[in-house]
Amino acid sequence: MAFKNVFLILTIIFSTACLSQEYPNRTVKVIVGYPAGSSVDLYTRNISSKLQDRLKQAFVVENRVGAAGTVAAEAVVHASPDGYTLLSTASQIVINPFVQKISFNTEKDLVPIAQTLSISYLLVTSPNFPANNLNELVDYVRKNPKKFNYGSYGNGSGPHLAMAMLQRASGIEVTHVQYRGSGQMLTALMANDIQMSFDTTTATLELIKAGKLKAIAIGGPKVVDVLPSVQPIAQLYPGFNSDGWQGIFAPANTPSNVVRKLNLEINQIIQGAEFRDLAKSKGVSVSSSSQAEFADFVKSELKRYEQIVKENNIYLD
After folding, report:
1. What angle is formed at CA 130 by the lines to CA 173 and CA 187, rounded to 5 degrees?
2. Could you confirm whether domain 23-118+244-311 is CATH 3.40.50.2300?
3. Arch. (CATH architecture) of 121-235
4. 23-118+244-311 and 121-235 have identical folds
């Protein structure tokens, strides 16, 4: 019996070592919970292509859209924990537990591999809105309460929470209108069906440059390099931070050596000049970290958004 136990332990050790050396030896599926052409999809495809070049195996991106990324996350949670099914997602994954009824535990059922980006939300308006900065917008809306609409892509989405936070901080009142995604929302904003919204720099930057949207303020704590004249909301309301992020996850119990290998490879990709230039051109910051650092960050973000949802009376769908 003792011999069999020793043999079993040695077999597990040997198998794990081989997995680390050989991984990947077949196609890796990277599931994205957002549409083709979205911000998450754009950066995921760039990283996946480079992983394929570096590791000499196919990394295939599959879009599974639905429930603000939850459909994709559930697919990965129930996948085999072998490193061959990964989740590329956004910070919505740490908001969903508090605004949806989900079938899994984000902290226990997924293992964070690597954070890739930090992304600021911008407060934008239609071009003819009579305000050019946050002070002017707050003053104008206060004088015209409940006369304006703002958009988001769903209850509990990043833009919804950001505007709820701004309303609580400033005392303004605007009406929430939900859309199916960023593209539909921004189209409505340009048509003046709604008058303002938060959305990512990736989604809005080219429209701002083309004069189709007006940038009012930055939701994150720092000025964005590509929009140096647009000031952070935190300058008027200290502590305000609606920054989002993106990262890669795997099913819980994925072998630690596979997780470490992926973390190393992803960090080398995002620290490269090509990826950094792509991110910078979209007003986005690269965020490299160890696996442990990203895991701690996810835990802290879950706590932060739980508090934000409670403070702003955001209710479950």
Report:
1. 75
2. no
3. 3-Layer(aba) Sandwich (3.40)
4. yes
Task: Give Cα separations from 288 to 179, 216, 297 (angstroms).
Answer: 32, 29, 12
Scanning the structure block, which residue is given the tokens 């009824």? Answer: 101
Neighbour-count burial of 167, counting CB atoms closer than 10 A to its CB (0-12 exposed, 13-18 middle, 19+ buried): middle
Chain centroid to CA 241: 14
Which two tokens mark 268?
């080398």
Q: What is the pLDDT along the chain (317 residues), one digit of tens a residue?
A: 454 454 444 444 544 555 445 999 999 999 999 989 889 999 999 999 999 999 999 999 999 999 999 999 999 999 999 999 999 999 999 999 999 999 999 999 999 999 999 999 999 999 999 999 999 999 999 999 889 999 998 889 999 999 999 999 999 999 999 998 899 999 999 999 999 999 999 999 999 999 999 999 999 999 999 999 999 999 999 999 999 999 999 999 999 999 999 999 999 999 999 999 999 999 999 999 999 999 999 999 999 999 999 998 887 65
140-153 burial, b at 16+ Cβ within 10 Å, e below that, comes to ebeeeeeebbbbbb
Domain coordinates in residue numbering, the chain: 23-118+244-311, 121-235
Q: Six-digit token pair at 37?
A: 């052409």
